[in-house]
Every structure is written in structure tokens, then in C-alpha cells.
Write a structure and sequence with these properties.
The complex is a heterodimer of chains A (615) and B (383).
Chain A: H1 2-6, H2 16-28, H3 30-39, H4 42-56, H5 62-76, H6 96-219, E1 225-228, H7 245-295, H8 306-326, H9 332-365, H10 376-408, H11 414-424, H12 426-482, H13 489-512, H14 518-534, H15 542-558, H16 568-584, H17 589-613
Helix pairs in contact in A: 2-3, 7-9, 8-9, 12-15, 13-14, 13-16, 13-17, 14-17, 15-17, 16-17
Chain B: E1 6-10, E2 18-22, E3 30-33, E4 39-43, E5 49-54, E6 60-64, E7 73-75, E8 81-88, E9 91-98, E10 103-109, E11 115-120, E12 126-131, E13 138-142, E14 147-151, E15 160-165, E16 171-176, E17 180-185, E18 191-196, E19 200-201, E20 207-213, H1 229-236, E21 240-245, E22 249-250, E23 267-272, E24 278-283, E25 289-294, E26 299-305, E27 312-315, E28 322-325, E29 330-335, E30 338-343, E31 354-357, E32 363-367, E33 372-376
Amino acid sequence: MGDWKTITVPIPSSESKNISQFTSETNMSPSSLCSQQVLCPSLPLAKSVHNFFRAFCTEENVDQSVSYLDQELTTLGFPSLYEESKGKEVKRDLNIVAVLNCIQELLVLHRKNLLAQENVETQNLKLGSDMDHLQNCYSKLKEQLETSRREMIGLQERDRQLQGKNRNLHQLLKNEKDEVQKLQNIIASRATQYNHDMKRKEREYNKLKERLHQLVMNKKDKKTAMDILNYVGRADGKRGAWRTGKTEARNEDEMYKVLLSDYEQRQKQILLENAELKKVLQQMKKEMISLLTSQKQKPKEKAEDTPGTVLSDVEEDNSELSKENMWELSCETVREQLTNSIRKQWRILKSHVEKLDTQVSKVHLGGFKDEEVISRQDHEQETEKLELEIQQCKEMIQTQQQLLQQQFTTTCDDDTSSLLQDCYLLEEKERLEEEWALFKEQKKNFEKERRSFTEAAIRLGLERKAFEEDRAGWLKQQFLNMTSFDNKNSENGKPQSAFSGSSDQDNLTLHSKPGQKSYSVFSESSVRTSKLTKSLPVSPSTSELFQTIRHISENSSSCVLNVATEDTKPNQVGRECTAQKWSVASRSDSQEGGCSGSRSLACTDWSIEHRDGLP
Amino acid sequence: MYKRGLVQVWSLEQPEWHCKIDEGSAGLVASCWSPDGRHILNTTEFHLRITVWSLCTKSVSYIKYPKACQQGISFTKDGRYMALAERRDCKDYISLFVCSDWQLLRHFETDTQDLAGIEWGPNGCVLAAWDSCLEYKILLYSLDGRLLSTYSAYEWSLGIKAIAWSPSSQFLAIGSYDEKVRILNHVTWKMITEFGHPTTINNPKIVVYKETEKSQNLEMENLPFPPTRAAASSLFSTESKYEVVSSPVSLQTLKPLTDRPNPKIGIGVLAFSPDNCFLATRNDNIPNAVWIWDIQKLKLFVVLEHLSAVRSFQWDPQQARLAVCTGRSQVYLWSPAGCVSVQVPAEGDFQILSLCWHRSGDSMALLSKDQLCLCYLENEGVK
């Protein structure tokens, strides 16, 4: 780069300004030009190039510029721009191809340079930003370092202060301890001093006492005497004994006896206690073993190695038990064995209980992981439910038992038996009641009808009355006409008998047909009356006739027909009546027949009425 | 009659019999019976000597150098042996005598600074000797004079104030100036538990009986004149009854003067019940209360609080029944079934200062300053 800068180009004067411009430019700052050419963006480069072209090459100095360019390019390694000179001619022709190639080469080179420049520029930018970033980090870290240093210093300061305080407190404590010690020493020394003083004073006091004692003893006044009425016997009744060596020895012996007896008693008590406690321990051990062996039945994944140890323990303990039964007295080794075995069992039991506890806690925390382990609440609920069920079943059984008992052991009370029987025939009873109700209804209906019929009968009676009156009038006429016909009495007898028979028949029919409706009777009676009216040969007296007419009217007014006639007695009465009437009405047979008929009707009415009185 | 130096003895069975013992110039400080009832031990003035007067032989014997302490003489329960505290040359000794012939059995030195008291255990085989209150130390000797054990709870503070043996000799209760009772067992002579006496009782399981005055319904119109004895007594002295107070209960305390000797603080009185079930104590700075402890469970059972300071209490020798007197005219009885305050029907004011049960447990004597009242207890048929 630096090479072609320094080369000064012999340029024609017309372009010398421009060239000198160029050269001056080169002279000014080769580096700046280089840098310009390198660093400047392509546009200003193009501009400067264009200016350069204008400045460099004009129409006048074409050849010079070509030769210059050729020189430059050849020095740069490009092929020559001129054609190969065929002869030694001064003017050489421009090799266009070479020129184009050179241009192409230069363009390529230029492009490469531009790329390189771009790359370098981007790299430069990157490096710049990296630098900035690093600088920021650096400053931050520096700050952090500062703050941490400050903190550390603060903490150190506090630590120092606390240590100082601690030392102070230690010192105080030491001082207090020293003081306490000192005071205790003082107390001790004072105590010894006081003791010494006390002893001194006591000695003095003793001396005084001795002196006084001497005086008192020497005085021997008679006042120190006992005035007693009589001697009191000894408490145990014996006489007093002299004091001899034997008595002393005896006293000693007695004392030792007392002591020994006390010790023996205590030892007995302690032995008893020991035996009891041993028993208790052995029992406990046995129970623990049984518990653990029953636990062994549970799924084995829970107890990995405990069954093995339990088994071994059981074996050991069995042998131990036999041993211990022999050694009931407190032998040291036996005692140790017992306690050790109990400790072992207790440890196993404890571990087992802990396992169960963890299981329970697992169940409480999570769901039912283990099907065998039921949560306590559910268990309790189940047991409560079952208990309730049991209670209910029991109650049911009891009530059933009671009922059974009642059934078997009921006494035959009439009421109860009737009740019982009643309860069996309840259905039939109800049916009967229904029928009875129906029956009553029917009765009511019949009553109604009867009333209506009675009204009809009354009406009929009234009509008959009228008819009878008519008849009576007619009879009167006939009677007046009939005074000539007396010899027809015998003919009347048959129809009478026939009539009576018919009337009897009628009665019978009346009696035999209780359910027959009353109008048929009426029709018969009307028939009878018609018969009567037909067969009238009799010539009754006028008084008898009036009597009968009165009777008829009476009867007809008072007659009330009814249905049921079952009594034979009134029939007889009726018959008798008819017989009587027949005898009475031998002359007036037709009327009597009617009367008897009506009479019989009346009689039957009586009976019927009588009947009606019955419920 | 200490001032005159005279002792007068009467017989309960033979009223004519009498006896008078005159100590003369030797003076009389204390006098007590021997357990067989045939000897009288008089302690002369300044504790110069103890004179043993025999009522059966009219003989006299002297014991020198008795110790002037709180409880220097102790007889075994069966009355065979007597222990006497002596002091010679500034050292404490204990002498054991056989009561039948007053022979000196043993004589040994005790390892105490200033022996304050001795007491036999009920089984007659162990003697407890304790030091003065300046030092907490109790020594246990067997009948033949060997030292069995010593016990000291703490140093420097005021020590033992009172002790009590349980009737079975199983326990020894030590009451000290730190308001605690410590119980030692007879097998190891080590402390098994200690009972504190706090001023506030918080545990609701403990029954606290508080004595309250009954309100007097005096109807002025109905008072008879001249006033009858009952009315007069009721006018002068108010009746009282026990009420159960619910916890927490705070008891009346007395602040002791710390600069005076023998402060009213600590457990001053202890007594076991005869069936070994209860221990009654009094804490001197809660003077109105009697604390009853259940020995089977080793905890506080009942507290009885009264209106005035408890003077003395004593268990019925036959059953677990405690009689308490406080200087008023009522005697208070407590048993596990309940407690009752009994008014003494007396003219005027009868202040009971001390009481004493009869051995059969049927009656007790109530003593005031110059009067004596015998109280008979009726027993309802108990199945």
C-alpha cells in the first residue's frame, strides 16, 4: 500500500493541477488517504473515484494516463494494458481485452476489500459492545465488592462488641463467684469463730454448772425429798432386782435380740416383695412372648427378622424358665438373666408397637394402602352398627318368644274363646251383617209399600162402602122383589160351603202365601164379593142385614192388610168366626160370607197386626 | 409447778394416794413420766442434772450433763429404752438407758454441731438425731449405737425444724425452714419425695376447706332474759363452718421478720396419721392452714384454712381423724369423709389452746389457759 503512495507520477501539466491535487493529497497524509480509501464508505469512495477520474483523465492526456495506468498495473502484477508491440513503434495500441480484464480484476479486488472491510467493521462493533458489557460488569462487581467489604467490617465490629460483652459477663460471673466464695469463706471462718466462742462460753457455763451442782449437792437440804404416801408396785408386778453384771449382759442381749428381730422382720418383708416382683416380671415376660408370637402370624413383610429373634428368644426363655423355677432364691446370675430377658422382650415389643404406630399414622395420612389395616374410626363404626343389629335381633327374638308363649299358654276363658272364635268367623260375620243390612233395607221398602197399600186399602174400603151402600140399596130392592123366592135356601148351602171352603181356601192361600202381594187378596176378596153378589139366594132379615152392613163398614174401615200370617190359631179363630158367622148369617149368606171373608180378613189382620208387634 | 420446784402426783384410781416431790434449790425446768409410769424424771434448773425418782423404791438416781435442747429425752414406743442427749466438753453424746433398771446401755458421740433433738422410730430400733437449725443434718443410729446413715438436704440455709416418724417406721418426714417436707424411706435412708407448701393452690383436685363464720340470726325480740347459757355463748363467740373453696386458692401468709432469730417460717409441726395414710403439716408462715398429704399417692390431699392461727393438731390414735384447735372456742375435726367445726358449749369464752386425744380415740381433752373440757365422740354404728 505504501508503495504506490510514494511514487510520484510524471503527469502532463494540463492535469498537473489535478495530479498535484492528487499528489498533494498523497503528500499530505498518505496514511489519511489510505485510511480514507480504506475506511470511507463506498459512496464517497465512488465520488472521489469519479472526481479522481475527472481529475486524472481528460481527453487530452489519455495516452499519458493509459501509460501511467499500465505502469501501475504492471507493477501491481496485472498484465500490460498495451498490445504486444509488433514493432518498435512509439505509440502502442490499447489492449481492450487486457483493459477489461484488469478492470474486472480490480472490481473483484474491490469487492473483496469491501467485504473484508464490512467484516472488520462488524467485528469492531462486536468488540466494542463486549467491551462495554465487560466494563459494566466490572463496575458492578466492584460495587458489590465494596458493599460486602463494608458489611464484613460491620459484622466484625459487632462480633468484637459481643465478644467484649461476653468477656464482661464472664468477668462479672467470675466476680460473683469469687464473691460467693469469699462470703462462704467468711461464713465458714465466722462459723469457726462462733464455734470457738461458743465452746469457750460453754466451758464457762459448764464450770458454773459444776460449781452450782456442787453447791446444790453440798447443800443437802431436806427439801429435796420425796414425800410419798406409799410405795407403788412395779408395772410388771415383779420385784426390783439389783444391778449386776448379769443384768447388764442380759440387757445387752435383749437389745441385740430386739435389733435382730427387727432385721429379720424386714428381711422377710423384702423377700416377700422380691418374690412378688419376680412373679410379676415372669408373668410379664410370658405375656410379652405370647403377644409377640401371635404377632408373628401377621404378614411377614412387616416383621423382617423379629420372628426369628422371637423364636430364638422363646426357646431360650423356655430353658430359662425351667432353670428359674429351680432357682427361686435370689441368685445373682438368675436375677440378671431374668432382667436381661425381660429387657430383650420389652425392646422387641417396643419396636413392634412403633411399627404399628407408623402404620396407623400412614393410614391416617394417606388412603387405605393396606387392606388389612382398617382405620380406627371405621372399625368403631362397624362395631357400633353390629352391636345395634345384635340388639335389634335380640329384641325381636324376645318378642317372638313372648308371643309364642302367650299362644301356647292361654287359658280357656269364655270371652277369650268366643273372641278367638269370633276372629275366625269374622268374615262370615261380616257377610251376615251385610245381608242383614240388605234385609233391613228391603224391610223398609216393604214398609213403605205397605203404607201405600194401606192407603189404597182405605180408599178401596171407602169405595166398597159406597159400593155396599149401593148394593144395600139394590138388595133392598131385591128384597122387596125377593119376598116371593124363599125356597132357594138349600141352594145357598153349597155355595156357602163352597164359599166357606173357598174362604178357607182363601185363608189357606193367605196363610200359605205370605209373600203374596196384597192386591191379589183384594182381587180375591173382590172376586168373592162378586161371587157373593152372584150367589144371593138368601133372604136375610133387614136387622141382620144392617148388622152385617155395619160390620162390613167397621171392618172395612179398620182393615189393614198385611203379608205374613203364619199363626194357625187366628186361622182357627177366623174359621170359627166364619163358622159363627155362617151360623148367624145362615139367612144372609152372601153378606156373611162377605163378612166372614172380611172377618177372616180382620182376624188375619189381627194376627198380622199381632205379628207386626214382633220385632 | 416449775417455779416452786414441786411435782405433785395423784392417782386416778386411788384418790387418797398422793405424792409430792420437791427438788428444792435445784429447781425444776421439766418433768416427765417414764413409760412404765413408776418413775418421774425431773430436769433441774440450768439442765444441771436429771433426777430420776422412783415411785416404787423411793430411790433417786441422777443423770449428769443432760443437753438443754428442744427434745433431749426420747422413750421407745414399747418403753424399754430411753435415749438421752448429753453434752460434755462441747461435744454431743447420746446415752441409751434400759428403762427397767436404768442401766446405761450405750453411750456414743454424735457427729453434730449442736444436737437439737432425738426421736426413736416406732419400731424401737432406729434413733433419729438432728442438728440445730444452723445446719441441716440428720443422723440415724441403730439401737446398738451404730451410725446407719446421715442425710443433709442443703447447706447454709436454716435447716431442720421438726421431724415425724410414720407409725410403721417406713418413713421419716423432715420439716425444714425452706417450707418443704422431705420424706426418707427406711430402706435406703434417702429422700423419696419432697412436699412444697406454696401460698397459692392451683390444682383443682385438691380440696380446700375454708372456715367461715356463720351469720348470726339474732332476733332481738326473742332473746330470753336472763340469757341462757347457750344464747350467751353464741353471743360471745361466733359459730363457724367449713366451706369448700374452688381453686385457685391463695392462703393467708405471714411475712416473717428476717432479722430476728427463730423466724416463723418453715414446717413447724408434722404428724402422721395412725394408719400411715396421711401426713398433717403446718407451714409456719401460713399459720392458719393445715396441710394434709396423702402418703399412698405422695401428694397433697386437703388443705384446711381457718380464721385464726392453728395452735395444735393431733391425730386420733385409732383412726385417721385429725383434731385441730386454733385458739377459738371451736374444735375442728377432719377425716377423709369430711370435716366439721364443733362449737364447745361453755360459758363465756373458751379458747382452746391445745388438745389431747385419749388412747382409745373416743374422747379428747380440750385445754384452755385455765380450763379443761372433755369431749366425747359418739360413734354411729358403722358396718
